[in-house]
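Q: What would this chain look like folded?
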Amino acid sequence: MQTVRTGRGAFKALVFGLALACFTVPAQAKDIVVFAAASLKNALDDAAAAWKRETGKTAVISYAASNALAKQVEAGAPADLFFSADLDWMDYAASKSLIVPETRTNLLGNSLVLIAPKDASVQVSLQPGFDLASALGDGRLAMGQVEAVPAGKYGKAALEKIGAWDGVKSRIAQTENVRAALLLVSRGEAPLGIVYKTDAVSDVNVKIVATFPESTHPPIVYPVALTKDSANPDAAPFLNFLRSSQAKPFFERQGFSVMAVPGSGS
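A: My prediction, written as structure tokens:
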């Protein structure tokens, strides 16, 4: 498997580079600092803009893979909220006492899809026994790092479930986050990629060619929580806003399913 070098470089360099960037994020002392999974960008940017219009307050959001963000919080990077793309990395943060447990909320759900460039003619049926390697031709399958990035872990599990993993495991272009995998397909540098549905609908240069059945991978759940070290009085109100009926349309517009949260108004 090949690890694609994008942005700052290889994944290890990215983790430390992003940690440094987060320490120097150009936020005012009053700003809320949010560490969020890359796949949340469009929806969360819209929600943060609405929050600012309503309150006049700013949420500064750092996007990366959930695994990198959890490690940054562990290293002491200043974040008020952690918004993960899977339960495992929120569990990791909880195990390290990095979050406030009672604020943890399973807020969003998502789907896993196979994408191709918008003009591609490829036809795919994600059924057991499907020869995905042949569909790739001479190209590689773009997906997040399969041992760390949530979308990559979900993707590997799904490919194993349908019996396609062994045929493509040596032809994976692994990326540091799901949006980097999306970009490879969007640019035509990879013929196929595995991303979330919400990523696919955010890019007009790709199309969804198949959706992985929910039975092929663990449920895709996005939990969010306040960090233990947050001292920003606006952090809890912003979290409540994200859980509210006001923010729900921003997530649903991007293809997320919003989970009911008792007492949130959603």
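The chain has a mean pLDDT of 88.
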